[in-house]
Design a protein that fits this description.
4 helices; about 20% helix; globular; nine-stranded mixed beta sheet; alpha/beta; six-stranded mixed beta sheet; 15 strands
Length: about 250
């Protein structure tokens, strides 16, 4: 995977000179507040973390794979106040900032500066990098079949661990797996070769996630399959990695 590189100890990926992150969920603090939990705004912390990655990697373009904002439906006052400034600061650090909208990004165009490029929500193909970028809550456009890699977010994958005392904890993970050509052909017609799928962990540290090893195949409530492309993979062949690069096995 020489043309694609996971950023060590960060939920971020490099595709050539393009930095990719997903699921920032700016404004999620308001949801916690309505439940009686006070959490300071994390927007500045997220901005600083992304800026440090930009500086360390020398990337030229930032693509946010959806769920930049959190509230659905509608938009919160926090989002309208913090997101434009957040994007403006990032655009001063890098040549281009682009967004592939996710299911939480309704109304984004109404308060985002026109210099920030917003792609169709079904994704965008980067020919030079041979990657197709999308949030993951919908089927991709047919152009994704030209890609070597399809990169998505949306599902916030995590791995659940348990010690001998019964204490449980979860850590964000990357998932890398093959897409099943025959399953894709049922929707897209004849395919010579299926791209590889990479699922990104959420960039937000407080947005929660799904413990992928807590599900059982055949479980009708298994919401891994709420992500359309995940219907086209074999979980037994998936490879899972912690943010530090350690491979962990699904059990």
């Amino acid at each position: 995977m020489k043309d694609i590189k996971f950023v060590t100890n960060a939920p971020a990926l490099l595709a050539g000179k393009t930095l990719v992150v997903a699921d920032l969920h700016i404004g999620i603090e308001q949801e916690f507040f309505r439940s009686g939990i006070r959490i300071p705004s994390q927007t500045d912390k997220i901005k600083q973390k992304i800026c440090s990655i930009i500086k360390a990697t020398g990337t030229e373009r930032l693509v946010i794979l959806g769920d930049l904002k959190h509230r659905i439906p509608g938009t919160s006052f926090q989002e309208e106040r913090e997101i434009p400034e957040f994007l403006d600061r990032l655009s001063r650090k890098i040549r281009a900032v682009e967004i592939v909208p996710g299911n939480h990004d309704c109304g984004l165009k109404s308060f985002v500066d026109r210099k920030i490029k917003i792609h169709p929500n079904r994704g965008v193909f980067l020919p030079k990098e041979k990657v197709y970028l999308m949030h993951g809550h919908s089927w991709p456009a047919g152009g994704f079949l030209r890609a070597k890699y399809v990169i998505i977010g949306h599902s916030h994958p995590q791995m659940e661990f348990k010690n001998k005392l019964g204490y449980r904890w979860r850590l964000p993970v990357w998932i890398r797996t093959e897409l099943d050509r025959k399953k894709l052909e049922k929707r897209f017609g004849a395919i010579k070769k299926a791209p590889e799928l990479i699922i990104m962990p959420a960039f937000s540290e407080i947005a929660g996630g799904k413990a992928i090893n807590a599900y059982k195949d055949g479980n009708k409530k298994d919401n891994r399959y709420a992500v359309p492309l995940l219907k086209c993979i074999d979980w037994k062949r998936a490879k899972t990695f912690l943010l530090d690069g350690t491979e962990v096995k699904l059990v």
